[in-house]
Amino acid sequence: MSSQPVKRIRRPRKAVVIPFEFINLDEESNHVMLRGTLNGSACRMILDTGASRTVADLSFIKNTFPETFLESNEQLSAGLGTNTMESHFFMAEELTIGDKVVASQFLAVIDLSHVNETYRMLGIPEVQLILGSDILKAHKAIIDYGGKQLILG
């Protein structure tokens, strides 16, 4: 053990506290679930500290914003169980996470049907977004698992 003093984590100025819930997948696994909106449309999202980018579900974007042009990403996306997933980009005018408003956020868009299919089999409502480390880092996120809250500056 180091004899260095423990650095205290300080809550960011003007921090927004966002409650979350644990969704139990089985006895040993759970996901952190948050609620918000994307350009005014309600959405549920998984908090994923391992995701490098925030991701929107392809069918949600196409069905909710049918007039939106999706820019193709030439690189294949890795993660979520595959390294051959086609992805697109979408500029969100406004993403809200709880009471936190994030304006002009660039999102990756991929097919999350395999995630939602598993959720349906478990009786869990579908998700439309995966909240990644791009937003968590930019807003100096603090995740309080005991208090079931995400704090964003």
List the helices and strands and how they pair.
Elements: E1 16-19, E2 21-24, E3 30-38, E4 41-47, E5 55-57, H1 58-64, E6 71-79, E7 82-97, E8 100-110, H2 113-121, E9 129-131, H3 133-138, E10 142-144, E11 149-152
Parallel strand pairs: 4-9, 5-8
Antiparallel strand pairs: 1-11, 2-3, 3-4, 3-7, 5-9, 6-7, 7-8, 10-11
Description:
The model has no long low-confidence stretch (mean pLDDT 88). The protein has 3 helices and 11 strands. The two termini are 31 Å apart. The protein has 153 residues and is mainly beta. The protein has a 6-stranded mixed beta barrel with strand order 3-4-9-5-8-7. Strands 1-11-10 form a 3-stranded antiparallel sheet, with no helix packed on it. It has one domain (16-152): Acid Proteases (Cathepsin D, subunit A, domain 1), CATH 2.40.70.10.
Main sheet record? 6 strands, mixed, barrel
How do the helices and strands follow one another from N- to C-terminus? EEEEEHEEEHEHEE
Structural class: mainly beta
What gross morphology would you assign? globular
* CATH class identity: Mainly Beta
Q: Considering DSSP H and I runs of 4 or more, what fraction of the residues is helical?
A: 10-25%
| Total DSSP helices | 3
Across the major sheet, the strand order is 3-4-9-5-8-7
What percent strand?
Answer: over 45%
CATH fold type: Cathepsin D, subunit A, domain 1
Radius of gyration: 16 Å
Outline the low-pLDDT stretches: none
